[in-house]
Structure formats: C-alpha cells, structure tokens
Amino acid sequence: MSIKNKVSFTMTRTSCSWKHCSYFRLCLTVRHGFPYQPTCLAFDPVQKILAIGSRTGGIRILGRPGVDCYSQHESGAAVLQLQFLINEGALVTACADDTLHLWNLRQRRPAILHSLKFNRERITFCHIPFQSKWLYVGTERGNTHIVNIESFVLSGYVIMWNKAIELATKAHPGPVVHLSDSPKDECKLLIGFESGTVVQWDLRAKKVDFRIYYDEAIHSVSWHHEGNQFMCSHSDGSLTMWNLRNTARPIQITYPHGKILKEGRKESCKPILKVEYKTSRNSNEPYVIFSGGLSYDKAGGRRPTLTIMHGKAITVLEMDHPIVEFLVLCDTPYCNKIQDPYAVVLLLEKDFIMVDLTQSNFPIFETPYPMDIHESPVTCTAYFAECPPDIIPVLYSVGAKQKKTGYSHKEWPVSGGTWTLVSGFLTLQMLYKLKTSKVFENPNAGEGRAVEQVEEDPYAIQMVRWCPQSRLFCVVGISAHVILYRFSKHDHHTTFPLWIIHLISSNLIHIPTPPRCPVAPATDHKTASTTASESLLVKSRPVRMPPGYQAELVMQLQWVDREPPQQITMTLGSLCNGLVVVDYIQKTILMCVSTLDLYGAADPYQRLTRSPRKNRQSTSGRGTRPISLSRVLSPSPSSSLCLSVSLCLCVSCKAESRENSFSFSRSSSVSSIGRDTKEAVTTLQFGESYGRKGDSVPTACLWVGTSLGVVLLLPISIPTEKERLEEPVTMGPSGTVLMLKGSVLSFSFLDCGGTLIQSPYEVWREPNVPEDPDEPRRRKLVNLSPLSSQEACGDGHLAVVCSEKQAKVILMPTQAVLFTHNVTESSFLLRADVVSVCNSVCLACFCANGHVMTLSLPSLRLLMDTNYFPLTDMRIARTFVFTNGGQALYLSSPTEIQRIAYSQEMTDNLQDMLGELFTPIETPEAQNQGFLKGFFGGNAQTFDREELFGEAAAGKASRSLAQHIPGPMGLENVRAAAGGVVGDLARARIALEQRGERLGELEERTTLMMKSAETFSTHAHQVRLSQPARDCVMEKHGEMKRGCEVILPLCLCSICSLQVMLKHKDKKWYQL
C-alpha cells in the first residue's frame, strides 16, 4: 500500500482451499479503513458493538477485532442519527431524506426490516427508551411523533409544538434538538427546542409540567441519573444547570473556557455542541464532558477540543481534526443508575479515538482496526496473495517496534460479536510502515527548490514493486526518483548510494560515462545540486537505518536547463517516451534509448528517428511530464538473470491528463503523422522466453509493450555467476514485432499445459551479517519455471498479451497467434491480470465502463461479464487490482479499501467467513433501591406505553404524514428483530409452561373418563345379573321394548343410551 511518502504493508488472510467451479460470480466482501465523511455514532452497552454512519449513506458496525461489517442505504442519503435497540439485535437509522430504517443485526449481513418515509416534516432527532418498543421522533416543525418499532407505523399520539409552549408565546420554538425520558419517571418526556426552550411533557396527562426559557440556543441536554436536575449546552459556550424544584432560572451558569474581561463583558467563546453529565460510584464528583467552548481569542481556539471536567480538575484534549460526535461509555444501560463512565469514543472527520477515563492522565486506547491507511493520501495499491509463510511474522515483529507508546493497558472496550478462524480470513491488519522521505533532506524554504513545479507532494509515491521471496522492494516517486530497498533484521549505519541519471528533454541521452557508472559519493552531492537545485536532495551524512527495509540505492532523473525531469509512472497515453534499463548490481546503464530506437530496422510504420533538438520540448509554469515505470523488480526470469535483476525505467512526457476524463479516443489506428510522437512504453516484463523465431533454447528477455499495441522483445545476455560482477550485461532489439489493438497492458507466460509460469527468485539472506572469508556466501536461486527443463523447452511456451482492446495467446518461439479475443469495442480496459482461481488460471479484466470480465486460458473464452459499476473517478482506475483466489480490491473512497470476490465458491462461502454481530446475552437486571429511597421518590416509575400510544387509545396517524415501506424480510425476522433475547426466552418458557399445563389437564380428564367407564361397566353388570329375564323394560333407566323398536326415555344418560344402542344394534330406536 503506497501512501504519499509512506509505504504500509498490510496483511490480508484469504481462504485458499478452492475446489473446481464452473462459473464466476461477483459480490462485495468487506470494506477496510476509516469511514469516509462520518456523520454520527452509536454504541450498544450490552452487546458492546459500535456503529458509524456516513454522509454517503454507509453504515460501519464494529465489534471485537475481526468483527467489521459494512452496509449501505440504497438511497445514498446521509445518515443523520443512529439508535441501537439495546440488546435487541436491531438498529434504527435516520437519514437526510427523512426516512427511518430498521436494520436486523441478527444475521451476518444486516438487512432492512422496515422503512418509514416522512412526507410533510423533516426529521431532526430520535430517541428510543431502554427496553421500549416506541420510538420518539422530533421534527423541524417542532412536533414530536411516536413510532411503533414492531410494526414501524406512526401512532396517533402526537405532541404538537403549539401545545408544548405557552399560548402567549407567538414565536416558533424551532426544531426539536433533544428528546429524553426522565430517569425519575418514564411518563415524563423532556423536549429541547433549538431556540432555547425546554419542556417536560407528561405523556399520561397530555400536558406540560414545566417550561424553561433561555436566551441562547440549545445544542444538547444531559440528565443527572437521579432525575432531579439536568445540564444544557449553549451556542455562547456556556453550560447551564437546571433543578426541577425551581425551573424559573438555572441554578448554575458556567463558561468553562471563558473569562470576564476588565470591561465587564464576557469573553466570546465557541458553542458547546454536546455535553455529557455522568456520575461515578468511586467519586462524589461527577464527570462533565463536552466538545467545543474554547475562546475565540485564545491561540489554541482554532483547534477542536474535548474537555473533561472532574471536580476541580479540567483537562483539555486537542484534536487534529474536527469532532463529529463523541459518546461516553458506561457500565450500565439504565439511565436512572450511577453511570460509572470508563471511556470516551471520539469520532473525528478523519480519525477514530477512544480515551480511557479510568486513569488520571486519560491515555488513549490502541485502535485494533486499520483506521489510518489514509494518514496521507493513497496514491497506489498492490495486492499479493499466497505470500511465503515466514514473511508475515517477520514484518509484524519489525513493525511492532514502530508502534507508539503511552497507550492504555486495558483491553479494547468494543468487544462485541463473535470472531472465528474462518471469519479472520477477511480481516486486515497493519504490519509495517516505511517512510521514503527519510532518504532525503528536509526541504528548506528559500534554497531554490521549485516546489511549485510539482503539483503533488514531492515525496508522493507513484508505484511500488515487491518480491516477497527475495524481500526486495522498489518505490517510484513523483519527483522522478527510484529507491531500491532490501530487508534486514539488524540496524545499519550507512550513506545512501546516489545514482544520477541525466536526460536531455524527450530524448533519453545520458551524459557519457564509463561502462560502469560510479555511484555518486557523498562529497558530490553539492556539486550535483548546483546543476539541478530543484530536485530532492539525498542525505549525504551517514544515517542509522532501523531493522526492516533499508535503502540500498537511490536513482534520480536530474533537472537539465531548469527543466523538470520526466516522471516515472504507468500512466498511458503519454508522449515522447523512452526506455532506461539499469543493472543495479554493477551500477551501469544497459540501455538508454527513445521508443523509436527500440524498433531498429523492424519499425512497422517506417518512421525516421528525430534529432534531440527537434524533439525537445520546453516546459513552463507548473507543467509536469508524468509518467511510466516498468514492471520493476519482478523477480528475474532465469537463474543467470537472478544475478542481475536489472531495473527498467520507462520515462515519458504526458501531454494530456487522464485524471478527469476518459472520453478521448483510444483507437490504435492513428495517422502516420501522430505515430511519431504518440507512442509510449506502457508496460514491461522480464521473462525467460525466445527472443527470435529461430531460437531453440529460451533465454532472458525483456518484453516491451507500447501505446500503439506493439510488442517488442529484447534478448538479454547475462554472464555466469562467477563472472557476474566483472563481465557486462548486454541487450538489444531483436527485431521481433507483434501487434494488438490499443495500448498493451500486461504480459504473462504459460507452459504448454496451461499452467502459469512462476517467476524465479533469489532466496533472501541477511545482508548485514559479516561474511566468512573461508566460506563466501553464494546467492541461492530458485527457478520455478518449467522452461528450465529440456523436455519443456522443446515444446516452447505460451505468452498471454492483453491490451486495452484485445487479448492474444501466442505460441513461442513460432510467434503464432493461437487465440484472439476482442475484449471490448466501445470502451477500454484499465486492468488485466492472469490470476489463479479454482485450481486453474484465467485472465481477469476491469473495463472503464465498469464491467468485470474473466476469460479462460488459453482458449480466451468469456466466463463472466458483470456490469459492476460505472467508473466515476480516477481513484478506482488507479487502485483497482486483481489477485489470486478470486479476489480484487480498489480504493472506494479516499479513506476506504473495498474488497470484492469474483469466484462463485468464494461467494457461496462468504457467509461463513463473516463475523457474527449479535450474540445472546442476558440483559443486566436493574439494582433494587431501598424502601426509603423509593418511598421518597427516588425510584423510577414505570408505565404501559401501549395504553397511551396504541391504536385503541391514540387511534391511527394520518396516512399522508408518513409512508410505511416494508423491507424484504419476512414476519419471523421482524419478530426476531423486535424481541430481545430475554423476551424470546421468557416467551418460550411461558409457552412451555402452558403446554405442560394443558397436557396435565388432558391427562386428568382421561383418568376421570376411565374411572367413570369402569364404574358404569360394574354397575351395568350388576343390574343385568339381578334382572336377567326382563328384556322389555329396564326399570332403572326406563328402557321400553316394543316389537322391533326400542324407545329411549329422556332420563337415560349418554353412557346408558350408548349401552342400550349397542345391545339392540339390529333394531330401530327413538329418543323421547
């Protein structure tokens, strides 16, 4: 990850056990980084999870490290306020489009259950009492509405603003800025209006208990836990304390940071936007925490501050960014209990901080989330999958020494959710940071360095290349400098070797030097600076380099004739380009030619080379000429090339910028007049290949792609290992020319079986260890290429070349085109990489029209074409990158990284990889207060809100006031979100008890029936034995027999009647 003058190594864990899959599917996975443009904050004190809303409609829900979830409102409206249903697994969001949304958090991907759209009023404030299913909603008109959480419909109970204020008051009180129920009595609702009016409304009596008027506007209100007094913050920087016994005037007015001047007037202060009034069990003094309120006249008044007042002690914490919102975390969710605050969460515009209140010096907690990737603007990204297993612990151990000290020793308070090993595959952890600015001297004003010539920061990073196996790292800066780093576990004192490359205008002509260009010594820095004082100055004194990546070589393109050097970049569509190939081991320039000179006699357009004088272009003002660097430091292509690892620089002068638009023509068929100047080197790749058609053995080659779709091969001759330091490396054009449509983007190599050929690399060895003269160290080379065997060499290999318009698979050395696919006609590709997915390889492409495509290899059959999103800014185009395992990432905002998956199996298993946001936790029980305290009014009074707000009592609200929009989820999920865990357990327990009672009653009735049947059977048997001859009439029950009929008198009971019917089955019977 490249960040301005810093390079940050981050670790991503990704599942790599892939089975065979036949198709692809694109989906979002996770988002990392700080929420862009945050607006609000909420915390669940029981579940211990945190929610952050943003101006773009996004919601980030954070729990313990590894639990990180991102959701987005489809409307994209800004989130104004967040309210957790504490320990209920639900979240209410209020958006700028005056819509309330109920989110279900009991699933790994939160979803909207209900939405309520207000049509005639704008939402300004919301409040949900603890363990209540009714939501209070304040509006801009000053009215207060009540919403049922379960059904998400409005109640007919409305508190109108004209009923809340006095009838004699003609002025409108303004929007509702505060709503809260009294800790002393839940039937009392405190309503704060922006104008300075505060009203306590009796919900049951539907009348006002008291009204408070203040001259200054109110921003927030905070209750004392006993419910006898509350505190307000105002726009003039004052805090007022009000007691319910006397509401005529405040009992205390304080200006925490204001003073009374000699003239008697008050010092002007900033508004206090929010205040929190909390009590502590361990101290008699309460905590008063607020933001703002500093004097305008103070020198530090311009910086945002958080003030913590505890007794007579006042602590002011200065912030680097404006405070968006802060929350005080307490042990109990009950507002009528002693709060015992233990931390303060501060949401800043560009940072996230948590302060420990339990220690007197108020240290901050170390944030476990990667919230600082935007510490400086991100300029490029690189994504490496399947890294060596030893590189991550090494980077972590070195990066741990860079961490700041003074953090709180307590655990991170946001510990909600569940994290598993599978869900850890999608986490992001900061490992190591590297500052490239430490290589250069600090720029001093007035020394002549033309800072205005560079539009961006002079240390801004344009590109990074990393070899995890050899631990070599290369950084390219916007000031036309290249720094080569090598990893070491030990610190080292050394000077930075400087190599100055002189270019004259557009022609890459360096000042004649011996075959081995010596490194500029420390004493030559001043001499070099006299010829080009505008460039960055490399430190000439010995510098201690800590363990980690240490600079081994610095290369600069110098200013000539007061002209800025051509920048090194990968930007396409540039002019006046050339190629510089550097052997950094021998410190020599192998090649320094213009693009036209690369063709030699094989120029397909038969252009004539121009003289440097004609091609020379002058620059003035702020004009700079970005960019182009090869695929630098890709591990060398052969065992012999591993000893050189040559460095290639593509230098270009950019004529028009692509930062703002992609609308210009990308056609490769340009006129012959424009071909002379409109060809740029766009990509480079070292590889072991065949430089000419007649070659039978592969050699080291440099593949060069240009903006006109031309592919050139430059064979490289590298000496053997013993002669590597003495004999020079030679290279030159081979005359081979291949053509594609559009600018060439990438090269990759496959063997004849379709397997990706991995680049060879050198095994890392500690560079700062003294060598043993008896056993000199030798470089251990690892070549994974199948071409190293003679069997594979006889079959050749496949070269996959992709341009902005077209992809081709070429058989080497015959250079026959086996497969061709026109990727797009109406647009052009921005990124194309050969990646491993599902135990095979494919070509992944990202198009400028927002399409993500995958092509099979080597057949180039279209596997997936998904319209992901339209490209709206250059940030996505610059940072989008594919990697192995069916994943990709890009910078979705200046502060956030979005990861996506394009594999079907990855998408299917994504649900198991995400962490759980909700965990079943028993709600803490409220502590019982003493009899005397409850008798004298200290205990909170409870009431049934259903009796007041239900449809039976309050009726229905007007349909035109708000529109209910059901979510995509069913009734079962609605009930699950509306009812808490404790409620579910209680309902289940009650249902089980009722079922047991019914089963017991059924068993008792069955026993009684059995006893009754036995008694009847015994009695009937006795009657029959006592009167065996009487068949006509049964005297006991009056049975009468007449012919073939049987008459049953009404005196027979049902059992006796049934016995008679069974006895005379063959006869008719009647009931009298």
Description:
The longest helix has 46 residues, at 981-1026. The chain is globular. It is 12% helix and 36% strand. The chain contains 16 helices and 65 strands. It has 1072 residues and is mainly beta. About 15% of the residues have low confidence. It has a 5-stranded antiparallel sheet with strand order 8-9-10-11-61, with helices on one face. Strands 33-34-35-39-37 form a 5-stranded mixed sheet. Strands 43, 44, 45, 46 and 47 form a 5-stranded antiparallel sheet that branches.
Query: How many strands, which pairing sense, and closed or not: the largest β-sheet?
Result: 5 strands, antiparallel
Q: Into which percentage range does the β-strand content fall?
A: 35-45%
Helicity level, as a percent range? 10-25%
> Using DSSP, what is the number of strands?
65
Mean pLDDT: 77
**Uncertain ranges:** 10-21, 445-455, 504-533, 569-576, 611-646, 652-676, 785-793, 970-983, 1029-1044
Pfam family, one: WD40
Subcellular location: Cell membrane; Cytoplasm
InterPro entries: LLGL2 (IPR013577), V_SNARE_CC (IPR042855), WD40/YVTN_repeat-like_dom_sf (IPR015943), WD40_repeat_dom_sf (IPR036322), WD40_rpt (IPR001680)
Membrane topology: Peripheral membrane protein
